[in-house]
């Protein structure tokens, strides 16, 4: 069994310290980000997700700066078709591949809200956005296969004899993550991607939702939060303290935004949270922050060993990678890498030995 790949979500400012406070990403501390990504690299984080949204700085220039301050960690660029035409986007990604020695992956996001898409002059609805994403990725793959010139006349893009002088380094292409929970998102990941990336659920829920993706040979990854302490009692006490004096205006703002979302991933996360018994989907999976932070805030909570064991349950269900966050995200990343990840690797090694023994028998 391959080791679980562990990624982290990079904060734009100093990061939120509580699950229930308003978003603190309305400022950019570049020096702080450099320090964060360098520590993530030292801790052995595989990749750092650079998210996209109207409330965030644009990830493209940030990655351009951060790849020159690091040597090993990969950056997962979240981006939406419709913001840049495919020729220019391939050119930008190819350029970063040379600046970083191929340390860039892509998280292609079709979009989650007609309201937000309209901020950028984009008025396509859900299914049409996925049709455009399909067309977009088909063109990108042609560039990365080395086709030249490339002409295309589709429903959303049209260009003639496009040539790119700079290919992706070594004639390769970036790893492609496709986000979403809808049927269209799954099929797009199967047709063009390497990994279907979705918000959390129980291991059983993930296994059931991912059957079609697994049968296609694609990987499945989860975007979620983690809160681990030495004992479960400490973790639960931390959770309780973090929810004291919640920002109810922020919760209402999130509720208002979600009303206009047409994303199946967002809707599914809120349905799960609303149906959870006292905010718990399982003894290990807490949903209380989803109302304040959205789909990624579904959180694995417990002792270091309990969290590690629960992640192995996801692996048994077919999950191969996680993109985590925490509150505060830097402290949780440090704690996870120092105390949880070694237990994950220990359990993986034990599972591997059991498999080898079974094969010999």
UniProtKB/TrEMBL annotation:
Q: Which InterPro entries match?
A: Luciferase-like_dom, Luciferase-like_sf, SsuD_RutA_monooxygenase
BP-aspect Gene Ontology terms: alkanesulfonate catabolic process
Kindly state which keywords UniProt assigns to this record, in alphabetical order. Answer: Flavoprotein, FMN, Monooxygenase, Oxidoreductase
Cite the Pfam families for this sequence.
Bac_luciferase
What Gene Ontology molecular-function terms does this entry list?
alkanesulfonate monooxygenase activity
What are the Luciferase-like domain coordinates in residue numbering? 20-320
Source domain of life is: Bacteria
According to UniProt, the name of this protein is: Alkanesulfonate monooxygenase
């Amino acid at each position: 069994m391959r080791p679980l790949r562990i990624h982290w979500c990079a904060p734009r400012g100093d990061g939120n310290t509580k699950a229930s406070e308003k978003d603190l990403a309305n400022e950019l501390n570049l020096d702080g980000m450099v320090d964060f990504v360098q520590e993530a690299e030292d801790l052995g984080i595989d990749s750092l997700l650079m998210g996209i949204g109207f409330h965030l700085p644009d990830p493209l220039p940030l990655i351009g700066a951060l790849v020159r301050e690091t040597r090993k960690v990969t950056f997962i660029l979240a981006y939406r078709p419709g913001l840049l035409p495919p020729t220019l986007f391939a050119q930008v990604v190819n350029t970063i591949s040379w600046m970083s020695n191929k340390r860039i992956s892509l998280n292609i996001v079709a979009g989650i809200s007609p309201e937000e898409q309209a901020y950028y002059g984009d008025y396509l609805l859900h299914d049409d956005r996925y049709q455009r994403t399909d067309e977009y990725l088909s063109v990108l793959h042609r560039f990365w296969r080395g086709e030249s010139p490339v002409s295309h006349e589709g429903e959303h893009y049209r260009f003639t004899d496009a040539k790119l002088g700079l290919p992706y380094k070594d004639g390769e292409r970036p790893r492609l993550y496709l986000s979403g929970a809808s049927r269209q998102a799954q099929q797009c990941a199967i047709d063009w991607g390497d990994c279907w990336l979705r918000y959390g659920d129980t291991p059983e829920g993930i296994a059931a939702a991912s059957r079609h993706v697994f049968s296609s040979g694609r990987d499945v990854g989860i975007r979620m939060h983690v809160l681990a302490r030495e004992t479960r009692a400490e973790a639960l006490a931390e959770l309780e303290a973090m929810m004291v004096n919640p920002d109810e205006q922020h919760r209402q703002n999130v509720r208002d935004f979600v009303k206009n979302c047409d994303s199946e991933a967002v809707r599914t996360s809120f349905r799960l949270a609303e149906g959870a018994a006292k905010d718990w989907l399982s003894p290990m999976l807490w949903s209380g922050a989803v109302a304040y932070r959205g789909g990624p805030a579904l959180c694995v909570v417990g002792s270091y060993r309990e969290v590690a064991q629960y992640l192995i349950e996801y692996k048994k269900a077919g999950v191969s990678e996680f993109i985590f966050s925490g509150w505060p995200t830097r402290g949780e990343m440090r704690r996870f890498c120092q105390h949880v990840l070694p237990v994950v690797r220990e359990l993986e090694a034990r599972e591997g030995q059991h498999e080898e023994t079974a094969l010999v028998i």
